[in-house]
Design goal:
Layout: H1 13-50, H2 59-63, H3 70-99, H4 105-117, H5 119-126, H6 132-154
Amino acid sequence: MEDSTFPSPGELKGVVQGTLLYLSVYMCLLVFQSFSKFHLFAQKKKEARAKGGNEKLPFRAVKYYNSKDMLALAGDRTVGNYVEFAIIFLPLLWMHAIFVDPSQAFTICFVYALSRLMYPFLFLFGGGFMIVLSTIPGYVIYTYLFFQICTKFALV
């Protein structure tokens, strides 16, 4: 016997599109993270040449665990924060789409992805407390999805 309550592929279109958007944002943030390191490396080499220094600057001094340069730190924290919360967001998004309401999936994912795209700019230009403008929407979305899924299964 077939369960007619399972969403059709058409009904899951929004969650698939949202997931692709989410993954696209992730790939853009990875590019930003890499760009920040290559940009800083080139900038530091140029500064060293201008000072007449012959000291060789290893790329790893800029790329790995560089908390001295805000651009490098912003790239690392942006990707780090995105990855840290991926394990929460993606399963909740899909469980909500499959078991609660697939029609909300793209909107939820769009708001989430947009808030995550703001992270590096708020980190670089907003400073300390401003970063919550990027993270709070995510916390609200996790809570909403979690509550909706729990409610659905508590009432079954």
